Amino acid sequence: MPELEKLQLRNVSHVYVNDHGASLAVDSIDLTIRAGEFVSFVGPSGCGKTTLLHLIAGLLKPARGSVLIDGKPVSEPSTAVGYMLQQDYLFPWRTIRENAELGLKISGRLTKEGAARVHGLLEELELGGTEDRYPHELSGGMRQRVALARTLATEPEMMLLDEPFSALDMHIKLQLEDLVWQTIRRRGQTAILVTHDLAEAAAMSDRVIVLGRNPGHIRLTVESPEQLRSIPPMETRRHADFQAVFERLWSELDHEEQLTSELEERGGQHA
Ligand code: ADP
Ligand code: MG
Predict the structure, then answer these.
(1) Domain end residue (candidates: 155, 181, 211)
(2) Does 155 score more than 80 pLDDT?
(3) Where are the coiled-coil regions (predicted)?
(4) What are phi and psi of 38, to 5 degrees?
(5) How far is ligand 2, taken at its centre, from the CA of residue 235, in Å?
(6) What percentage of the chain has pLDDT greater than the value 90?
(7) CATH assignment of the domain containing 245
(8) Is 47 in the pocket of ligand 1 (CB under 6 A)?
(9) What is the pTM of this model?
(10) 19 C-beta closer than 6 A to ligand 1
(11) Residue 125 is part of which domain span?
């Protein structure tokens, strides 16, 4: 049984404490993700998407409940979990090769094999020949591919992607969605994508989790139909069955936004 369950969130709640007091960011989240599954988190700003990724990555500890990877509680960040963000966080004074090798270097695994793997990854991500260049010489899409190479180099079993495409132009974004989807599938990795873009969520994932806020909770889950799961995102977007999945998400999120603004209006100064 535990073999198939890569990630489990059991009744997870998180509270942020600061000068203004304590606030409940996510409440009683129960979620199981199978090994090799691609899941997206969507929902309005502030519903706890990033908080959930931080809890899964071991960057935060839940106030209540537990986070388990391969049946073991997560207690600290580990190279088994790769994290990719909207910003590429490349070091401007390091070459592309050095940037891509950084994850391995930090975890003390920059061996000859590691360096060869980084080289292979850069080739795979169509960055061959850029190794001795610097980040400012590359386009936004290329830089995000370097960040992806750096994340993949440590061979994580799980990939956490927090809006990695949202700063990119539409056509670059579509290409990168395909590339990321393919590299993750090829490696059999488990992935969680956070995105504002419902079409992206529907095109990339096997299952979309719709979150609501105040505090963050799971509203519902939308499964992609079988015939859409095995084809890459660009092809999925063109498939006859895609629109129905998108409409379902759209109506749910629309409803959530309406509810929230109504509550805020009624709440007046208490909101
Ligand atoms: P999302 O990624 O879905 O936009 P977040 O996980 O960033 O949501 O935030 C969830 C909730 O927790 C929000 O109400 C946000 O204001 C609050 N929050 C996030 N980070 C902090 C923090 N460091 N301190 C206090 N509150 C925070
Ligand atoms: Mg966020």
Answers:
(1) 155
(2) yes
(3) none
(4) -115, 115
(5) 27
(6) 86
(7) 3.40.50.300
(8) yes
(9) 0.92
(10) no
(11) 86-155
